[in-house]
Amino acid sequence: MKCSYFTPIFSLLFLLSCTGEKNESNPAPAGDDTAAFDLFFDALAQQCGNAYPGGLTLEPPGDEMLTGTELLIVHFRECSDVQLKLPFHIELEEEELWDRSRTWIFTRHEEGLEIRHDHRKPDGSEDDFTMYGGFSVGEGSALRQEFKSVERTEETGIFRGWRIEIEPGVRYTYGTIRGDEWSWRVDFDLSEPLEELPPAPWGHE
Hints:
This protein has helices spanning about 5-20, 20-25, 35-45, 150-155, and strands at about 50-60, 70-75, 80, 85-90, 100-110, 115-120, 130-135, 145-150, 160-165, 170-180, 180-190. The chain has four helices and eleven strands. The protein has one domain (about 5-190): Lipocalin, CATH 2.40.128.20.
């Protein structure tokens, strides 16, 4: 099943989020007893057990990872008080074939959050490039957290990393950033979970 009918939905979500980006990055401060990153982690955890459809909303010229026609699925699959594992499933052009190599891992620490990218081969073994990521920077908010890639930032001299956004019941967004701008982005519709859950990602049976 192709996801071309998701395109208008995610185009609208993308435009709406861009319109309110300045305000969203500086929301009202969280309560005194709860850090913003804890509220963000808890908002992710609210989706546990569910899977949601999504699509590509931004890709730089020359990037060929996705065509924009694939159905994408995020599955909030493994959850604990300190760690969440979200497999990222990518529909391939071949009928009924999927890339199940990627899992986003969020870990809660006392001072903030950490994101790691678990990449596996079809046989379940670790990919040559895996478990890269970084720690959250700044206070962020209950809706948005940003994570710094120290290596990429040092290499380019500008901030490089990841921006994750969550609006329960509306959308989940994952993307890379350069400076303060999105460089790559996928959005998932949280308004209604999928009835059929995807199988385990590679290496996580």
